[in-house]
Amino acid sequence: MSGRGASDAVRTQGQARRRPGADTVGRLAGALIVLVLIGWGLGEVCESLLQSADLHAVRSLAADRSDTLNGLMRAVTWAGSTVVLVPLAVLSCLLLGRRGRVPEAVAIAVSLAGAVLLFNVIKLLVARPRPPVSHLQGVTSTSFPSGHATQACAFYLSLLLAFLATGHPPRVSAGAIGGVVLLVFAIALSRAYLGVHYPSDIVAGALLGASWTVTVWRTLVGPPRVVRARARA
């Protein structure tokens, strides 16, 4: 092969290697835009149709507050905050990277970062006011969707998928799944109890965070281990 032919071949191979990366970024960006639009629509629907039920639920929780529960919910809600999730994500990515599991590490980082971007953009579009009850935690942004629910669901689900991908006995896997579900539920409940979110804010946030994470993992890592196992069965 001539020098020019070899150069063309190398250039073609390099372009082929770059295309999947560009395609991946494009797919994720497209998915993020679609979820923003879906979230925007959900926000408008919730504010129009569920306002009365949402308000009744928040006021009922506020009426049942106690000093013990106040302290517990303030503690639980931190597990879904950015100041806790970002260091945990960095640590998780470093540990996975050292074990050679780079795709999973990247998926965790992208899941959390995309979730933060997702809920912040939707908040600006929907601009739903916070519930008109006493807030037990300081907040400055708008209400829909719940940022804690979105990013907590995205991160802890991502962490769970990374854990399940290594292969564990059924009881261990079931325990991990149950633990993540309980933790995310507790974080979600704390947001309504503290009076800073309506229930629909929280449900929408959890759905958006989960949808984004599943999309990220299918794009960067492949179908989750549980899905592959079912496909073989």
Tell me what you see in this structure.
The chain has nine helices and no strands. It has helices at residues 3-49, 51-63, 67-77, 82-98, 102-126, 147-164, 170-193, 199-220, 225-232. It has one domain. The radius of gyration is 21 Å and the shape is globular. It has 233 residues and is mostly helical.
Key terms for this structure?
disordered N terminus, globular, 233 residues, disordered C terminus, mainly alpha
Secondary structure: elements and pairs:
Blueprint: H1 3-49, H2 51-63, H3 67-77, H4 82-98, H5 102-126, H6 147-164, H7 170-193, H8 199-220, H9 225-232
Helix pairs in contact: 1-5, 1-8, 3-7, 4-5, 4-6, 5-6, 5-8, 6-7, 6-8, 7-8
Structure described in brief:
By secondary structure, the chain is mainly alpha-helical. The protein has one domain.
Oligomer: single chain
Helix content: over 70%
Count the beta strands: 0
Q: Mean pLDDT, nearest integer?
A: 88
Give the overall shape: globular
Radius of gyration: 21 Å
Coarse structural class:
mainly alpha
Helix tally? 9
Instruction: Please write the string of helix (H) and strand (E) elements.
Output: HHHHHHHHH
Sheet having the most strands: none
Number of structural domains: 1
Question: Strand fraction band?
Answer: under 5%
> Uncertain segments of ≥5 residues (pLDDT<50)?
1-20, 227-233
- Gap between N and C termini, in Å? 49 Å
